[in-house]
């Protein structure tokens, strides 16, 4: 979850610090006050596109920082693994993550994760899935069938089955491609062999070694931190030996004071021995530090060589379409293919057997995944219907249709026998999924893109979040006015649904609805004020009477009345009970 958001010189924001808590937090304020700027800042912090228009007029740069806690779940493990690949280790347990991003008016922006400089791509990849932001128009993603398949698989907990199928699909495609290469005419085989030899020569020239990338990254960090290391060693050496009041000097002075007392108190011999040993150890430590300092020279040439080697490895990896640490394996794979081309006849017979076996395995995996999806589809429809009823769509019904995949739908699909019938199987399975909505009784269920209004899509998106609450690894949801198309009793239903989602996730909701605001655990108000000739935005945490006044304003509009205040208190009391 996210604990803190710090914004500087962002649009009309001068300086803003927002503390965020678990549970449900609502953000309210007058239209145009800048509520959605908080969501825009969070987008930027998660690796979104940086626009120079975001920089406050007159400022050199805009910056956003945030503090996240990773927790211990599956999403946390994925984030830790992604960051460890770029040398960022996260403390065990809830491990905090400090992310800072700056957007200068000129030059390139910078991104720091726990004070380590990373690329925007690394940031976006690492934090993907940590915060789910659903804006006023983002619920339109529900109309895309690939997203609907992802929702069904998340609901049915089909991740392991889908991963197993994907692995079998990749293996079959590799075998089929290898067979295709071997089955080509002799002239094509010669051309392929020449290309493989060229690729292998290119790899041999660079000669990537297993684990080399990690070793080079470690060395680069050390070379880049040479000044900091030298400062530490100099300070330690001076305190141990070199300073006038160093440890060695003070210990020698203590020994001089102790010598006259030894004849009078022989039991002080032990203390003298300890002081003498301490002086010796301090002297040895100072000598070691001196040796280190003698060796500790900035080595820009070596740093340049390391950077050049890293660039060469990454450039070659991009050319081959693999990760840099996979280059040795890529060389081995290409060498294997070269050997196979050279002895294609024997290999072709082996491939036919392997392909037949993997086709059976892929068909079995597709059958298991399809069965799990069909079982999940019925349950998802029933659960969505229940949640939609709670959101004042009691007559609406959701159907999840599953149909066989066609070659046109996914050209990469492979022909495989599934449950006795030849089917097309892609990495995602042998089915296409579509959510259908029956908005009113007696009407035919139709695709979401054809029948659902903005308000219906908003509520359906929220119903799905509620249904997936205990299965979705995303720790934080941000809803940016997704309740804009509803009101009245429906607004209270939406608020209760958000409140229910907040039992398992951190929920941050920008809203204009007093019924939603009253149900929150925490209430933030965004206000826009004139500061001299400039406009400034502030965020206030509301409680007690302030919260009553804000909800009354949301109820009454321009002029807050006593009636609105009474209504606001009623809403708050109802929320507490």
Gist?
With 577 residues, the chain is of the alpha+beta class. The chain contains 19 helices and 17 strands. It has helices at 35-45, 74-84, 120-127, 145-155, 159-183, 186-206, 212-224, 226-242, 247-258, 269-295, 300-320, 327-342, 344-390, 448-451, 454-467, 488-501, 514-518, 545-556, 562-576; strands spanning 2-10, 13-19, 24-28, 61-69, 96-104, 110-113, 116-118, 131-134, 397-404, 414-418, 421-425, 431-438, 446-447, 476-480, 506-510, 522-531, 534-542.
Structural features:
alpha+beta, Rossmann fold, 6-stranded antiparallel β-sheet, 6-stranded mixed β-sheet, 17 strands, flat
Number of helices: 19
Strand order of the largest sheet: 2-1-4-5-6-7
- Terminal Cα span: 27 Å
Secondary structure: number of strands: 17
The proportion of residues in beta strands is 15-25%
What is the topology?
Layout: E1 2-10, E2 13-19, E3 24-28, H1 35-45, E4 61-69, H2 74-84, E5 96-104, E6 110-113, E7 116-118, H3 120-127, E8 131-134, H4 145-155, H5 159-183, H6 186-206, H7 212-224, H8 226-242, H9 247-258, H10 269-295, H11 300-320, H12 327-342, H13 344-390, E9 397-404, E10 414-418, E11 421-425, E12 431-438, E13 446-447, H14 448-451, H15 454-467, E14 476-480, H16 488-501, E15 506-510, H17 514-518, E16 522-531, E17 534-542, H18 545-556, H19 562-576
Parallel strand pairs: 3-15, 3-16, 8-14, 14-15
Antiparallel strand pairs: 1-2, 1-4, 4-5, 5-6, 6-7, 9-12, 10-11, 12-13, 16-17
Helix pairs in contact: 2-3, 5-13, 6-12, 7-11, 8-10, 9-10, 13-15, 15-16, 18-19
């Amino acid at each position: 979850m996210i604990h803190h958001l710090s914004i500087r010189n962002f649009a009309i924001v001068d300086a803003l610090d927002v503390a965020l808590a678990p549970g449900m937090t609502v953000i309210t304020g007058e239209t145009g006050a800048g509520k959605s700027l908080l969501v825009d800042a969070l987008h930027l912090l998660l690796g979104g596109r940086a626009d120079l228009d975001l920089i406050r007029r007159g400022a050199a740069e805009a910056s956003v920082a945030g503090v996240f806690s990773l927790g211990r779940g599956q999403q946390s493990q994925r984030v830790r693994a992604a960051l460890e690949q770029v040398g960022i280790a996260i403390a065990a347990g809830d491990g905090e993550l400090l992310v800072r991003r700056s957007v200068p008016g000129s030059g390139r922006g910078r991104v720091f994760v726990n004070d380590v400089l990373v690329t925007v791509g690394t940031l976006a990849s690492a934090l993907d899935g940590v915060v789910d932001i659903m804006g006023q128009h983002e619920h339109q993603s529900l109309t895309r069938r690939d997203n609907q398949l992802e929702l069904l698989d998340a609901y049915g907990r089909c991740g392991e089955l889908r991963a197993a199928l994907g692995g079998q699909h990749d293996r079959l495609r590799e075998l089929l491609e290898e067979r295709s290469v071997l089955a080509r005419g002799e002239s094509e085989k010669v051309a392929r062999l020449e290309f493989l030899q060229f690729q292998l020569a290119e790899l041999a020239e660079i000669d990537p070694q297993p684990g080399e990338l990690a070793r080079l990254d470690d060395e680069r960090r050390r070379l880049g931190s040479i000044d900091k290391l030298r400062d530490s060693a100099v300070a330690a050496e001076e305190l141990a030996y070199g300073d006038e009041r160093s440890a060695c000097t003070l210990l020698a002075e203590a020994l001089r004071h102790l010598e006259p007392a030894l004849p009078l108190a022989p039991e002080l011999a032990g203390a003298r021995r300890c002081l003498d040993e301490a002086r010796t150890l301090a002297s040895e430590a100072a000598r070691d530090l001196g040796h280190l300092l003698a060796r500790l020279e900035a080595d820009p040439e070596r740093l340049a060589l390391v950077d050049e080697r890293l660039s060469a490895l990454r450039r070659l990896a991009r050319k081959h379409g693999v990760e840099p640490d996979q280059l040795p394996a890529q060389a081995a794979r290409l060498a294997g293919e070269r050997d196979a081309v050279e002895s294609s006849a024997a290999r072709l017979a082996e491939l036919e057997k392997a392909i037949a076996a993997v086709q059976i395995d892929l068909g079995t995996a597709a059958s298991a995944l399809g069965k799990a999806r069909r079982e999940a589809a019925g349950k998802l429809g029933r659960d969505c219907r229940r949640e939609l009823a709670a959101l004042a769509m009691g007559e609406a019904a959701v159907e999840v249709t599953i149909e066989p995949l066609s070659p046109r739908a996914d050209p990469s699909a492979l022909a495989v026998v599934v449950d006795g019938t030849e089917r097309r199987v892609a990495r995602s399975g042998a089915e296409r999924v579509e959510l259908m909505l029956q908005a009113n009784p007696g009407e035919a269920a139709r695709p979401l893109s054809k029948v659902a209004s903005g308000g219906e899509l908003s509520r359906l998106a929220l119903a799905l979040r509620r249904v997936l609450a205990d299965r979705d690894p995303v720790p934080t949801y941000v809803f940016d006015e997704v309740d804009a198309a509803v009101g009245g009793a429906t607004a209270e239903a939406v608020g209760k649904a958000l409140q229910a989602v907040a039992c398992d996730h951190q929920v941050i909701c920008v809203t204009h609805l007093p019924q939603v605001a009253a149900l929150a655990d925490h209430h933030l108000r965004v206000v826009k004020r004139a500061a001299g000739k400039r406009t400034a935005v502030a965020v206030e945490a509301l409680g007690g009477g302030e919260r009553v006044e804000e909800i009354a304003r949301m109820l009454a509009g321009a002029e807050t009345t006593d009636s609105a205040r009474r209504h606001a208190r009623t809403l708050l009391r109802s929320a507490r009970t």
